[in-house]
Amino acid sequence: MSSLDGIGVDDLLPPPTGGPGPVTFDKAHPYVPNNFGAKSTYRVADLSNPILQPWTIPSMKKANDAVLAGKIPFRARERCWPVGVPGFVAYSLVEPFYFYQTPEKVVIIVQNGPEIRRIYLNTTHSKNVKPSWYGESVGHYENGDTLVIDTIGISTKSFIDNYSTPHTDQLHVVERLKLAADGKTVDVLVFVEDPGAFTTPWTAVQRWRRIENAPIQPIVCNENNGDFFEQGLAPLPEAAKPDF
Questions:
Q1: Global pTM?
Q2: Average of per-residue pLDDT values in the chain
């Protein structure tokens, strides 16, 4: 097992080659992460991004207006909710990712939560995929250094990103994780298509740094994540009675 930490901004980033890319921050309200040595801010989405179909904008504007009014936005991983796909690979600044591989699958664990994602190797998608937080992911290796992950069946309860960008059940995501020649970083290329939510397919990038021998630390997330100060946060649902 090895681990990877994020490098740079904890977001899906536009591809350096240009072309349609992910929703990023409104230039009038720049996003500053809390580890950049300056006063951090919450995200305000750029609603002028041409990838957005009109129906997606009202709910995103509502989220923007709440931030501008001084409210704390919903951010899935911060509130211990599953982040879905492609968000799983994007928000990687704070907690490391751990990889465990067998001949049949790759398991990726994010320390925060924890969150667990399974990629089944050298197989095809099921005939009828039941929607879930991380969908159904099948993968294979190309050229020995690139893990290609194809995911469908992603629950519409999730957002694409931390800007509350919605999607439909037509969402299809392909991630390409390529190990650098020096073995020290992994470049992540994300391809997204959803004809129900976006005007065109688009791509995004992220980069992780490799770290060896980093043990998984226990994180108390769900058990210590209530809305204790009545800020309008969104803790995970709790069952009124056990299932057994």
A1: 0.88
A2: 85
Q: How far is the C-alpha of 106 from the C-alpha of 127, rounded, in Å?
A: 21
| End-to-end Cα spacing for the chain | 34
Residues 196, 56: Cα–Cα separation, whole Å: 10
| Residue in 217, 241, 239 with CA at minimum distance from that of residue 94 | 217
Q: Work out the angle at residue 204's Cα, subtended by the Cα atoms of residues 203 and 207, and round it to the nearest 5 degrees.
A: 145
| In the chain, where the domains are located | 2-212
Neighbours of 60 (CB within 10 A): 21
Token duo for residue 222: 């769900």
- In 3D space, the residue among 29, 11, 31 whose CA is nearest the CA of residue 21 turns out to be 11
CB 51 within 8 A of CB 200: yes
Total count of residues recorded for the chain:
244
Contact criterion met (CB below 8 Å) for 216 and 1: no
- DSSP 8-state assignment for residue 59: H
pLDDT tens figures, 117-138? 999 999 999 999 999 999 999 9
